[in-house]
Amino acid sequence: KALVIGHLQGGRLWAGYIIGFLIALAISLAISDRSSMHGHGSLAREIRRKAADKGVPPEICEGLFVGLAPDTTPRIYENNWSWDVGLLALTPDRLIYWGEEAQFSLLRIQISRIALGPGPANWFRTPSVYISWKGDDGREKTFNVRPVAANSFFKTGNLTRTLCRDLNSWHTGRSAERDSLISAHAATQDDLTFRTPIFGQVSSRSIRSLITRRTIFLSCFWVGAVALGIAVIFGLHFLSDARMDIDSLSGRTATPLAGWYVLFSAWLLSIIQLVPCVWRREPRPRRARANTVGSVTAQN
Which of 24, 37, 20, 16 has its CA nearest to residue 273? Predict the structure, then answer.
């Protein structure tokens, strides 16, 4: 709209188009960064309340709120990056998880590897922590966790890296850092063992399955419809010879083809948001190659 009122032409007009697009891109990424993490604060409080009501010991109720996925690569679980959410806690010799779908514990000596690996597909490099362990049958299995109490993917990425450091310090017997997210607490009850992870039947989809002709068409259709509506509301034109008086006192006219600029910018922003999903090759996490825990139904 500023370009229309200013009636820019030539190089200044194109510079204005580029600056406007970059501002729109920054806003789009900021909204994407925060919108996906909305509501996790209230969910964390609800999980802690449920745990306390069921008599779960304080060291677990005060644990770190995380999202959990029973897989060795990032996948989609009913339109979420996490299959379950719950509380992660440590005692000197056990890692304990208490969530809505699963409750389990692992002895420290059962855990074979803790490493960062790929997380949700986005522009903010948000990893997950992959924890591999060996069961009684000697087979190595893996699940991944990620703090989800932060209000953005960017902050979640930093917290996840800190969590991986803290878990490795606990696993190797090193002292906790001053800025630790999680540290070992002495158990107030003896019966904190639960059982080893058994996730059962879990349905999931690959990240690449999000990119289909249908999803791209629908995304472009609805984004285009909104862009056209905005162009009409602000009186932006699609024909090069179209003119509209914006200010009768100044005699300034509308910028030609501004409507097309809004439409194509909206489509390009939509495509940019999908690029991380297209690039994702779903590699195995570093140092944590293992079989999926439990039985997982994969939908490519």
Answer: 24
